[in-house]
Amino acid sequence: MPADCIAVEITEGVLLDSNTAVINFLLEFHDAGIQVALDDFGTGYSSLSYLKKFDIDSIKIDRSFVQNIEFDSDNMVLCEAIIAMAHKLKLRVIAEGIETQEQLDLLKFAGCDFGQGYFFSKPISPEEFEKFTT
């Protein structure tokens, strides 16, 4: 499988505790063409400096913001702000926890790049995944 088809997800906690080994792993992933996604963005100790300091390719909007998203809601405003900021930094945005068509439509409207959640598929076994992709 080509390296650019692989993404490693890390949490903000990993970056908080960043030491030389963590920084080296992230550089090795980047040099190998493996994508790095920052998971659960906005729920922990969000530091925008992480987005500049480390080679992050994508940020993942936590499902807690997606869960109750509605037009003109605070969650919608937060998602729009995260998406706009990420795009200005040339990062892709993945929304987690999409369960309804309405959530998907609102996130598309906000400019979100990708989504994941039960709306698309429940967790499946490797065998089911193989059938799903062929």
Written overview of the protein:
The protein has about 130 residues and is an alpha/beta fold. The protein has a single domain, classed as EAL domain (TIM Barrel, Alpha-Beta Barrel). About 45% of the residues lie in helices and about 15% in strands. It has helices at about 10-15, 20-30, 50-55, 65, 75-90, 100-110, 125-134; strands at about 5-10, 35-40, 60, 90-95, 115. It has a 5-stranded parallel β-sheet with strand order 1-2-3-4-5. Strand 2, helix 3 and strand 3 (about 60) form a beta-alpha-beta unit. The longest helix has 15 residues, at about 75-90. The mean pLDDT is about 90.
Question: Which labels suit this protein?
Answer:
134 residues; alpha/beta; TIM Barrel; 5-stranded parallel beta sheet; 7 helices; 5 strands
Helical amount: 40-55%
Poorly predicted ranges: none
Number of domains: 1
Q: How far apart are the first and last residues' alpha carbons, in Å? A: 15 Å
Total count of helical runs of at least 4 residues: 7
- What is the H level of CATH, i.e. the homologous superfamily? EAL domain
Give the SSE order as H and E letters. Answer: EHHEHEHHEHEH
Backbone shape: globular
Q: Structural class, from secondary structure content?
A: alpha/beta
CATH topology title: TIM Barrel
Q: Which sheet architecture does the biggest sheet show? A: 5 strands, parallel
Strand order of the largest sheet: 1-2-3-4-5
- Could you tell me the number of beta strands? 5
